[in-house]
Amino acid sequence: MFKKILIANRGEIACRVIKTAQKMGIKTVAVYSEADKRALFVALADEAVCIGPAASAQSYLVADKIIAACKQTGAEAVHPGYGFLSENADFSRRLEEEGIKFIGPKHYSIAKMGDKIESKKLALDAKVNTIPGHNEAISGPDEAVKIAQGIGYPVMIKASAGGGGKGLRVAFNDKEAHEGFSSCVSEAKNAFGDDRVFIEKYVLEPRHIEIQLLGDSHGNYVYLNERDCSIQRRHQKVIEEAPSPFVDPAMRKAMGEQAVALARAVNYESAGTVEFVVGADKSFYFLEMNTRLQVEHPVTEYITGVDLVEQMIRVAYGEKLAFSQADVKLDGWSMECRINAEDPFRGFLPSTGRLVRFDPPAEREDVRVDTGVYDGGEISMFYDSMIAKLIVHGKDRDDAIQKMRDALNEFVIRGISSNIPFQAALLQHPRFCSGNFNTGFMVEEYPDGFDASMVPHDDPALLASVATFARMRYIERAVQISGQMAGHGRSVKKDLVVLMAGVRYPVSVEAIDGGMRIRQGDKAYDIVSDWTFRDLLFKGTVNGAPICLQIERRGLCYHISHFGLQVQPMVMTGVAASLLERMPEKQPPDLSKYLLSPMPGLLREVAVQPGQEIKAGQKLAVIEAMKMENVLKAEQDSVVKKVVAHPGASLTVDEIIIEFE
Fold it and tell me: Which ranges carry the ATP-grasp domain (predicted)?
């Protein structure tokens, strides 16, 4: 077995590979950019080598620097993770020429299957059903429009070397095809160093179902069941699960055998994934093959018991697969939520900065957290937005959903925004819970975006009661402070009012063994907990049922998060509540005459000039953040008075870009 391997990646996947390497007794080498010098994966590795500046094009995408690091440290093999150079045939070939093993498929397999255009041609030759499209490289946006017209709208414009939602657009008309092609080319060049794109028919109401497979250098192949990745936002996976609620055993067998046949056609070695687009009639079409480890691989590991990273390392070393297709099991149900640094209440805009608190759920047999960050660490603007992957395993789908909901309640993140409230809302959505969804779920269910009103809660009065419990604990502590003047000590009132989300909740409090009974009219909540003010997690029981939520005191409010709902109740006496209701509300400032940066990022383009008349919907500026381009458009007709920020500027949230007359 290898003595030392190098991980040519960063973040959570680098940590994931290191974990398995340590289990196998293999030393690890991390390569890192200057922006990642304090990252968790650097600390976990046995050795670490800096390979350049923050920009991926000057560090993680430079094969020469990675090969030099291998020679410097004596690493015998390279695990590429996903993204960056993981599907670069030239990188795999160069490693082979240098006598360094690539922990992945051979370069010729990557060249045939990793390139989206070449894989389409191979699939056609192998008589695999494929979606109609144009598989040749496209010269420019005008040609892209003509091709799209010939195929028929809607069409998908996709980077040949793409993945992770980068370099991908769906166009429903000529204008969107023209703009989408330009954006795809730009994103693809920045993310992958390859600006080729192709166009294919976009299948309406599709499911995205993929088959995980393994192959070795001795001609042995197995498929490890399927994953359903249909819950996507802007073509990026949000929740993945295995198995799929849509796939039956006969369909699973047919898809798996076709995936293996495709792998055999290119003498595929290592872990790989064949993606299919699946219609409502259970017909399936080859979409592409990912010649690398997938982000969502943990759900497959849970239901099969197979460590995919370990199998990749063993295959690269030349070992035979130690099991056959008959040995592959399907045990229970697994789900993964991608926890991203983005604000779901502001259009999912990126959120960067310091992780003031990072306290994920404790790992246990049925809960797993894959992450590359730590408490006090930083979410950088230079890379993707993933904070962590939260994975659970249940005996069936309903059990997995409930365990994921509970685990999300336990996931504490402060300092930046995360998409946890959105994930929690999805897990309560009746359509998701029924399993009746497709890749259009987000657009169909949230056509106007996502806001706080879309996060349901069965019993908001329960949250008002927990806030009362916390307030009483605070008052009880204040009463015990020594040195209070006689006759002026803090008194404890038992009748209070909770103001929450515009609703008034009169409550009364009485002590019970280990807690309090909070009465609201004819309803009573017996709350038992040993919660203290230092705890962000409130754990205990309510009327005998276990409860876990997040609570913290900020000024007069108690900020509570439960099943994705975020409320800020205030608990006070009836007199104080009546007086507060009479206070005038402070009006927010008028910012309609400014274009503000909605996120931290790099200003790539300002598309207007002072004195220019603009129309609603017109492009004003482009900001790059976390490897994605974000186009800012005018909300109303106006005239540009002043351009305040210029291309190349690093913007903070709410920084002024343009002033209007």
Answer: 122-317
Place of tokens 């350049």: 52
Cis bond upstream, residue 298 (ω within 30): no
SS3 labels along 114-171 = HCHHHHHHHHHHCCCCECCEECCCCCCHHHHHHHHHHHCCCEEEEEEEEECCEEEEEE
Q: One of 210, 288, 301, 552 is an active-site residue; which one?
A: 288
**Long-range pairs of 260-264 with CB within 8 A, sequence gap ≥ 24:** 260/213, 260/215, 260/221, 260/222, 260/223, 261/126, 261/128, 262/113, 262/122, 262/123, 262/126, 262/128, 262/286, 262/289, 263/213, 263/215, 263/221, 263/289, 264/215, 264/221
Distance of CA 523 to CAs 423, 461, 519, Å? 30, 9, 6
Residue among 263, 327, 311 at smallest CA distance from 290:
263
Residue 110 CB neighbours (<10 A): 28
Residue type, 495: D
Output the pLDDT for position 174: 95
Catalytic, 288? Answer yes
Residue 163: its pLDDT value, please?
A: 66
Cα Rg of the chain (Å, integer): 27
Please give the angle made by the CA atoms of 266, 272 and 278, to the nearest 5 degrees. Answer: 95
Mean pLDDT of successive 10-residue stretches along the chain, which has 661 residues: 98 98 98 96 98 95 98 98 94 97 96 79 80 81 94 88 77 94 88 85 88 97 98 92 97 95 94 93 89 97 98 98 97 98 90 93 96 95 92 98 97 96 95 95 91 88 96 86 69 86 94 95 95 94 97 92 94 91 86 90 92 93 84 92 93 92 90
Contact 329, 335 (CB under 8 A): no
Question: Helix (H, G, I), strand (E, B), or coil: what is residue 609?
Answer: coil
Alpha-helix residue ranges (DSSP H) falling in 174-248: 174-192
Alpha helices in 193-291 (DSSP H): 249-265
- Distance in angstroms (rounded) separating the CA atoms of residues 119 and 544: 57
- Check: CB of residue 616 under 8 Å from CB of residue 641: no
Domains (range + CATH), the chain: 4-103 (3.40.50.20), 105-129+206-331 (3.30.470.20), 132-201 (3.30.1490.20), 339-449 (3.30.470.20), 460-481+488-581 (3.30.700.30), 594-660 (2.40.50.100)
Tokens 């299948």, residue?
Answer: 203
